[in-house]
Write a structure and sequence with these properties.
The relative contact order is 0.17. The protein has one domain. The radius of gyration is 14 Å and the shape is globular. Helix 1 crosses helix 3, helix 1 packs across helix 5 and helix 5 runs antiparallel to helix 6. The chain is built from 6 helices and no strands.
């Protein structure tokens, strides 16, 4: 099932062959969707971290994935790049910048941040 609730077949194991910029774009898009959409400010933050072509490519892929697929892809890509604690700290700093881009860090964003910390830092 994609993000719009359309069923597209069985669960497909996540295939990940991203660059580091594509990984960053995907993680930030996933975080931005904690309230089911990304704002223009959030898009601008993501585009400031990666180029527009990367953003558009990853956005198209992201829209086709459900949450389970997204999480599996993120975990596999972080493992593939052997993200260190320092790398994760920088990624989480980018996530905080994203969340504060609209001037507030709302409860949905806080919950997403904590969930990502538990999931990715374990």
């Amino acid at each position: 099932m994609d993000r719009m609730g359309n069923f597209s077949g069985g669960i497909i194991m996540a295939q990940v062959n991203w660059t580091k910029d594509e990984l960053v774009a995907y993680v930030l898009l996933f975080a931005a969707h904690s309230n089911l959409t990304e704002s223009n400010n959030e898009k601008n933050v993501i585009i400031s971290k990666v180029d527009m072509k990367t953003f558009q490519k990853i956005h198209g892929e992201f829209e086709q994935d459900n949450d389970y697929q997204s999480i599996q892809k993120i975990i596999k890509a972080l493992d593939a790049y052997n993200y260190s604690k320092d790398d994760l700290s920088m990624l989480f700093a980018d996530i905080k910048i994203l969340f504060f881009s609209d001037g507030e860090f709302d409860s949905l964003e806080q919950n997403m941040y904590r969930s990502l910390e538990r999931l990715l830092k374990s």
